């Protein structure tokens, strides 16, 4: 899952917004078997725990928290990127022989200024300010986009591919989508379920245009499906690939309200409307879909089978960070761990104006200005 | 039992580790569901995750499993390993 904070907004403007630097804190909780929470160890954390942060980590909010299967990548407005977690396949963009796993965030190649990043199960996609697209990691289903028989790479450029002005990159378990400023979509990786459009190919080993039928404004990848929102108004939404939970049927009866953000879990779709409500469809055996009464939501971060959101009280303007869904690894932040079903759990972290949230495979991240 | 089945996954979507004779598939916790080829041959169809309570049901045709070509001394596993699977 790739959590693009603040929708598609680029990183540049955040830079200038954040002139006077206050103290900041990054918390993480959940699954940590490979050090993906950057806590300095390999134990799960059941409540929000301060991350181990290298001194050169910017104190401004990250613009993307991208969480793969067992690794996490942070992108900052400065173009700096940091990764933690499993690096046995070079997915943290460092040589695995030297760094098989990173239990604290480590900088990714300082030779580049990165503009976009996404993380899949065991790979990372990075795009620099020159528009060059790089991949790092491993995968048997074309995840690297480097061509047939290419199953691993250490920060390698996808040559002969330069779509004009990429504005977003997202990855699911084994596929990746690029969105361009003109509303075109490119993709590569696993395509057996049709998540990369027609013709269905089990492995799409090089980037290809994904025919959606309309110019796209927002998109995300589920485990083995893609969700795409049109640019025209009223917006419509298409799902490509595995639709076991009949999300497409539900979308057909969706009211068409204005969409602030759309994110996919492994088996669900979450629409944040500008009205502050969430519409969600998909797998719901562990409380993955939020209670219908939620309102005042300003941000969502959707993980594999759980989610975080920032909720603002209409009258008091008081903000809190809430979680719900599958929480077996403590990723819902409830002391003692466990699922949050049919309700939400409020984290015991103050939520000031400047707060960012992220979620991955049973992992949760909260960045706050303190 | 069906309650605890997280998903049903076609064997074509799983990864086969020839060295270990093991089929795996990503679990939403970050670890992987696992089931031995031998267990599939024995009719077992539930793959478990070593790190959490979730399980998946593997969808497969027994006849499509990679066949044991040569049985060594006690090397059933090793033989299975040698058989390449078309992913
Ligand atoms: Zn698991």
TrEMBL record, chain A:
<feature type="repeat" description="RCC1">
    <location>
        <begin position="276"/>
        <end position="313"/>
    </location>
</feature>
<feature type="repeat" description="RCC1">
    <location>
        <begin position="24"/>
        <end position="78"/>
    </location>
</feature>
<protein>
    <submittedName>
        <fullName>(Perigord truffle) hypothetical protein</fullName>
    </submittedName>
</protein>
<dbReference type="Pfam" id="PF25390">
    <property type="entry name" value="WD40_RLD"/>
</dbReference>
<dbReference type="InterPro" id="IPR009091">
    <property type="entry name" value="RCC1/BLIP-II"/>
</dbReference>
<feature type="repeat" description="RCC1">
    <location>
        <begin position="183"/>
        <end position="232"/>
    </location>
</feature>
<feature type="repeat" description="RCC1">
    <location>
        <begin position="131"/>
        <end position="182"/>
    </location>
</feature>
<dbReference type="InterPro" id="IPR058923">
    <property type="entry name" value="RCC1-like_dom"/>
</dbReference>
<dbReference type="InterPro" id="IPR000408">
    <property type="entry name" value="Reg_chr_condens"/>
</dbReference>
<dbReference type="InterPro" id="IPR051210">
    <property type="entry name" value="Ub_ligase/GEF_domain"/>
</dbReference>
<feature type="domain" description="RCC1-like">
    <location>
        <begin position="26"/>
        <end position="362"/>
    </location>
</feature>
<keyword id="KW-0677">Repeat</keyword>
Automatic annotation (TrEMBL), chain B:
<dbReference type="GO" id="GO:0017183">
    <property type="term" value="P:protein histidyl modification to diphthamide"/>
</dbReference>
<dbReference type="Pfam" id="PF05207">
    <property type="entry name" value="Zn_ribbon_CSL"/>
</dbReference>
<keyword id="KW-0408">Iron</keyword>
<dbReference type="InterPro" id="IPR036671">
    <property type="entry name" value="DPH_MB_sf"/>
</dbReference>
<comment type="similarity">
    <text>Belongs to the DPH3 family.</text>
</comment>
<feature type="domain" description="DPH-type MB">
    <location>
        <begin position="5"/>
        <end position="61"/>
    </location>
</feature>
<dbReference type="InterPro" id="IPR044248">
    <property type="entry name" value="DPH3/4-like"/>
</dbReference>
<keyword id="KW-0479">Metal-binding</keyword>
<comment type="pathway">
    <text>Protein modification; peptidyl-diphthamide biosynthesis.</text>
</comment>
<dbReference type="InterPro" id="IPR007872">
    <property type="entry name" value="DPH_MB_dom"/>
</dbReference>
<dbReference type="GO" id="GO:0046872">
    <property type="term" value="F:metal ion binding"/>
</dbReference>
<protein>
    <recommendedName>
        <fullName>Diphthamide biosynthesis protein 3</fullName>
    </recommendedName>
</protein>
